[in-house]
Amino acid sequence: MLSKDALAHLQDAAILWGVGSSTADDVIAAACDCLVAGIDSPTLRILAGISAVKGSESDELRRWLEDALAELSLTYYREGSREGEEEALRIMARRLLAGTITPRGLTSWAYRFITWDGTPMAAELIGLDNTYEFVEAVISDGQEYPAAAAAKVDADVIAEARALVGDTAAKNA
């Protein structure tokens, strides 16, 4: 793994952990990947060495994560912060656009980890998750529902993901 990729992976893991979407183990593994890629700092070594003992790893992570990220010139987002939620949305939107998750996967992720109480940036995706629920309910009820309806929801999710990451093509869609 290239050092630039390792740093990006650590940043993303930390952000997703902050919204409850990844585990402390994911962040610890990303810290280890940084060391393997030749990135080093005193607090990064501590972070990579955190024991994955269930129940205590998150406490240790909370203790060292902010300093480790600062030493690497990465951004720390406090757990549950609005800024962290917005960055997590952008990470997941990029994953959709890269083809590593589905449109339905993005909306259900937003519904589960951001919720209606989170950043207003997630509102459109959460609403589209409800639309998927409606489409699925109609289909499971045995009613005819045009296949184009689900494709339209997918297209709306992709357009929203593009808007979240600032893709200019989203403005023209």
Task: Give the N-to-C terminal Cα separation.
Answer: 35 Å
Largest sheet: none
Order of helices and strands: HHHHHHHHH
Summarize the amount of helix as a percent range.
55-70%
Count of DSSP strands = 0
What's the total helix number?
9
**Beta-strand percentage?**
under 5%
TL;DR of this structure?
The protein has 173 residues and is mostly helical.
Description:
69% of the residues lie in helices and 0% in strands. The protein has 173 residues and is mainly alpha-helical. The longest helix is centred in the C-terminal third of the chain and has 18 residues, at 123-140. The radius of gyration is 18 Å and the shape is elongated. The two termini are 35 Å apart. The model has no long low-confidence stretch (mean pLDDT 90).
Please specify the SSE layout and strand pairing.
Blueprint: H1 3-18, H2 24-36, H3 42-48, H4 57-71, H5 82-98, H6 103-113, H7 123-140, H8 147-164, H9 168-171
Main traits of this protein?
elongated; 173 residues; mainly alpha; 9 helices
